[in-house]
Amino acid sequence: MTTKANSVTSKGKTVKKAVQVALDLLDRELDDVEIEIIENDSKGILGLGSKLAVVRVTVKEIIAQSGNASADSPSEAEISKMVRMMDLSGGNSISSILNKEKVINVTTSDLSGKVWVADGQIFCKDALDKYPLLSPGPGIKLYKNDELIETTVIVREEDVLRMDLEDETREPQWELTISDDKMKAVLKVIPGVHIYKRLKEKGPETYIQLEVEEKKIPIMIETDAVMGTLRAAGITYGINYSELALACTTDDGGSFIIATGKIPTRGENGFFQPAQEVEIKKGIKERPDGSIDYREIRQFPSVDRGQVLGTIQPPTKGIPGTNVTNEPVLPPDVYPLHVQEGKGVVLVEDGYKVVATEPGHPDILVRGKTAKISVISKLLIGTDVTIQVGNVRYIGAVEIVGSVQDGMLVEAQGSVLVHENVNMATVTAGSSVIVNNNIISSAITAGSSSLLFAEIHLMLGDLIRQMTQMVAAMQQLSTVSAFKVSSFSRTGLGPLIKILCDGKFKTFSSLAISFINQIKNGQEILDEEWIQFSERLYKGFIMTQTSDFRSIEEVIQVVKKGEELYAVTQEHKEESGCFIKAGFAHYSQLSSSGDISIIGQGVYNSKLHAGGFVEIAGYVRGGEIFAAKGVKVGEVGTKGGTTTKITVPQGQSIRIKTAMEDTVIQIGPIVHKFTVQMSNIHARLDEYGQLVLS
């Protein structure tokens, strides 16, 4: 059989060295062979990935056909065939040749009647009893003795076989694009490739079908060409050389961001900086013992008169950036905040600070470059006050569209309006309380501060009277030679005060302690001078063993301070315009520094205390009523005999349409109990202090 040629594929650092290796293996001269360069040597891109040269060296046909082989021993041509079946591309070491021989491991007798493919060549061995068969595979043009073969054919050693296997080259394609804002340069790459085709190795068989195998070698993009395009496009800033190298050597292709600009730092427009939290916050409050108070889940921020709501901050300019063409990129313009004064606020210090002129909830409405800042005196709650809403504490007024439900608290320094009911809850207002429907098993307080001042007013008046009498007693005792008043500067007035309290002023100590406790309970409302005054009382009059008083003059100073504070309580008492108005009260406590008005069915087994007038259109069944300025009710008492008591101070009157038996009224010190039902009663004291019923 005659084959196309004897050839060797070899590698080297250069094409010249690779060819020399092949010549040494073939034992041929340069004129005896044909050379095919499969892959040129390469030094790599940016110093990365250098590659060896690959060549295929084939002995010219006229030389390959010379010589004859003996039948008994392998001829020189057969030995040459075995050499050609070796893959010498990795070198010609003894170990590699031996390993290849072990893979082939055939003898002349093994090859008889068979065909095989080695090193891209087709070989066969004739035999008398069988014929080697060969067929072209898909995509292979096989020629036998220059005749195109499309089916299975018998091959012999003398046949000349050849294939048309054309290598392919797909040049790489790339395109550079710049984003519209010139902040990115993108290299889109479709990789190139050399596709080298050769016959797939086939071991000796009676029949084989030819197959083609491909070797793909990527074609790298020249970085110099890309860099030239970048320079031509004016791209000089933010080039990512690592990404550029990756794009030029990629096997998969894709888009690569090879340059990125520096984004400008945005400035900040002018804005309102609150001095405190202004949004209604939800959260869970922990009690001092570590347990959770689930009713304290919402906080309603509020401010008082004169409080700084916040400041108007000026705009801050941004920092310019740079695009990929090294041009500056300006940040967006910034603008000052224009503030409109809403209700309850005023701008001071050249519009830098916002100050509340009214108590209430701060309302900040920002739209674009304009902010309207107000203080809303009323807090509107559009649902029931439940555990989901949480307790309500607010400086201004509160309006509740629904009801106040079990266990909840509403506390406002302004007025409170409840459109529905108050059920087993507590409502405390600095001003008035209106409950349109019913008050059930609840505590309602209107004018909490006024009530506190009213109670303080009564106690402080009595304290001042007794302290004034104490001072007079001390001054009288100082004239008695048995008392050495000068010694009080060392020991203090404690022993003398104790003598007076144990004698003529037995009620003073208990009254002073009650007053001190009242100040402590109201310390969130009262000014610091009240706290200091109560501490002075405690250290001077209660702690007699270590009394602070060293002279009668010090006691006189305390009395004068008490008189000043007493005048303050009188002002609060006169200014009180608070009231409670409801439809019905059941098993509840109502306390008002002003009037109490029940306009529905009436009151059942409740306690009412008013600093003003009490008027009940319906009935009063059980409980107690006190009104500082008089009482007017429809029907009082029960047929079952449950006691109902109504009390007013001396000088005031009680009007009752119908009084059941066991109803008790008290005007000043005079108490009267009805033993029979009476109607249209006007009870008062005459000029002699006697009770008049008419």
UniProtKB/TrEMBL annotation:
Residues of the RNA-binding protein KhpB N-terminal domain: 9-60
Matching Pfam families: FapA, FapA_N, Jag_N
Signal peptide: none
Classification via InterPro entries: FapA (IPR005646), FapA_b_solenoid (IPR046865), FapA_N (IPR046866), Jag_N_dom_sf (IPR038247), KhpB_N (IPR032782)
Protein name as it appears in the record: FapA family protein
Lineage: Bacteria, Bacillati, Bacillota, Bacilli, Bacillales
